[in-house]
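Hey, sorry to bother you again with one of my protein questions. A protein chain has come my way and I'm curious about its shape. I'm sending you its amino acid sequence along with the backbone structure tokens. I owe you a coffee for this, so here goes:
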Amino acid sequence: MNFLSGLSSVATMGGGIGTLLAIMERAEHGGLDFFAVEAAGSVYLGVGEAQVATSDEQGSGPLFLESGFFPGSLLVRRFPVVVVAGTNRLEVEVFEGRPRDSDALSVAIGSAFPPARSSRLIELEQAMDSQVVRERIAVAVAQISSGNLTKLVVSAEEYYRRSFGFGVARAAAKLKRSFQRGHLYASPRAVGVSPELVLQRIGDVVNLNPLAGTAGRGGQVALLKSEKDQWEHRVMVDQLISDLGSLAKEINYPEHPVLFDAGRLIHLATPIRGLVPPGVGFVELLLAITPTAAIGGVPRKEAVEVLRVLEPDRGLYGGLVGLMAPDGDGEAYLAIRGAYFDGPTVRVVGGGGIVGSSLAEAEEEELRAKIQATAKVLAAG
């Protein structure tokens, strides 16, 4: 899958992702809008004055997808300048460039330097509030006990302040080095490295790799034997299969989940593969399956309504980041394992799935571990 198929580069240079991150840093300092997503084996960085597009709009270049957790927030944008970084080379493409895009182009093809590799980027301001977490878990347990829900994913957050050397590109560099198997996403509003493929489409084939059930390194055997984690994972897979069933055929997946190594954490994963007929669009598929039970709950509609009251400020956390090619192929990832910005404040969020057999203390520790998986990388000197 090539999101830039059939288009010629205006510039090609060495440096790969290091150069791309330097371009991102210059865009950030220059006040230019940008959005980066790792997909199809490369990192794609859109720079400049983006235009809102529709999912079926014809045109050149990739469409950048971004949404918050709650349905109805999907944003599809087309950037005039796109930088693409593979392992050791970088390409710059211009799409429908206009005179006002010259700043973005000069940033992209100008000289660049890699971001600093070692500095403390954030400092703790407010630790995870255990009382708030316990209240959220209690609401989830009550909803499940009453029969309204089978599963609910609650979140917790810690708040940090930006250190002097903070920058999105620097944060992206540190996170990507720590979570090499994850997929980078970055903008002036957020930065993270997602382990979870929500949906990939290549022609008539769709692939998903949902995750649910978590353990720290060394806890693989216990995770595989955990009835709670296996059940949490199963209800997520069942919901996805049901949702896909109306749009896809020949859906295949293993009977039992496998282990997925996400770096500091290990997850249960179930690779899912299916075929979709002509006329079913990538965004149509996304909207049919999200928010998945990896980040929302079961049943979906009822879980979302509970979370609108319980956690109305989720923002981008738990939403989608991704790309769609002009031919309709695409990839989308869950916006987790990240930091989300509001002025000088940096919010780091983690989520945990609550089911009938959940133990509050264990769930609280899992939430803390997921927050720290990201926060420790950014706070390290």
